Amino acid sequence: MLAGSEGFPGKSTAPPPGVPVEYQGPLPSMAALNIRNARFETLLADLDEPWAIEFCGRDELLLTQIRGRLNRYRMSTRELIPIRGLPKIESGKEQTGLLDIECHPDFPENRKIYFSYVRSDAETGRFYQTVIASAVLIGQELADVRELVASHPQGWSPANFGGALEFDGDGLLFISIGDRSDHIFAQEGQRLEGKILRLKDDGSVPEDNPFLDDHEIDDRIYALGVRNPQGLHYDQVTDTLLEVEHGPLGGDEINIILAGANYGWPTITYGLNYTTEKIGVGTHMEGLRQPIWYYLPSIAASPITVYRGAMFPEWEGDVLIGALKGQHVSKLDLDGIQVRSEHAFLSELGDRIRDIKVHPDGSIYILGQTTGLHRLYRAENQASETPPFDAQLGYDLFCSGCHDTGAASAPLLGDRAAWFEVLKRPRDVVYRRVFAGAGGMPERGLCHICSDEQLKAITDYMLDGEQ
Questions:
Q1: Integer Cα distance of 418 and 27 in angstroms
Q2: Alpha-carbon distance 423 to 419, whole Å?
């Protein structure tokens, strides 16, 4: 268990020349990304099947549990407070239950929230639909609950509901609806299944939705041809809407969602049917959009966010994807619309990653299906401070090859007589000779990655030992 980690100590002795300091902390997957000073803590444990989290301010977080419970979490007091007033929610069968949660952009003023859930038919309870509703949060109670969208007709499958919610910079609400395990619906214009919807905050249709003049496609549809999108994220810096969806047997996709675009499911896919049969025509077809990244084999990609913050500046603009089956966080280095690299981290948690959100302070909140709510962070000022330079380690790595062996007629460290002439010179003169090179010593002692201050520190370490 990783709760309560308080940083990662390094070795107390210097390694042999050329060998990096071995990482000894509890998060080797973070160290592999060259981040060794991160900290990790568990904020809430023993949560019953949590699904989603959403910040509604610096100190307020909403948390859903699939069994039909909505909670407020106060970060300052670490209190988890149940919220009453939800509509009837079907749960207990595969993916049925309370799903995503979203706060209105003006939440501090209007206290308005949006949530997605599964409803069953009143007659048999065996047919289901994705429902999106809004409400006003007053204290610990929901008021003015209004249904905005319900996918009709109800379907047999207790899975592939989608239900991801996200506002863009113009205050428009994006909604994902899964294909409900019936592939063909994703290409049918009068069905909401397998689509990304775009609505105003009251549920009405924006005047610039892409299919308003197409009588064969529902006006609420913004994009089509998706399978089971459980994650949407709008990045305000790039004005980009990102979507992540589960593939079938392989082929989880990350897409940039564009107005009127068709993402191809089930005509094209990088996965196979669960019976291992081919689906559609293959991976490409003219007129159908390609993902910017796909996972093969599937990691069961579910939540998605873009890192923007001061705490981990190395990750600015990177995409973070939570893996359910893969039990890790996948970090995509995104350059424009091209992924340059992909790395997994936090596999140490050993849990299905249900949601990821970035707090305004830059820390990363991670929701595990069985381990609860966690926070990945750096201590104050750690992200911007440069660690103290270890002059002895610098000597071991860059100078010992000559000064421990006498190569190129270099004076041996510890042979005071060999350093007599050097010690007579003013220290500033010695520094300049190190920078420019002198005698058999090459320019900067071959340490071209060292700054002037670091070279001075190494020089002082060597000369002070000969006094």
A1: 46
A2: 6
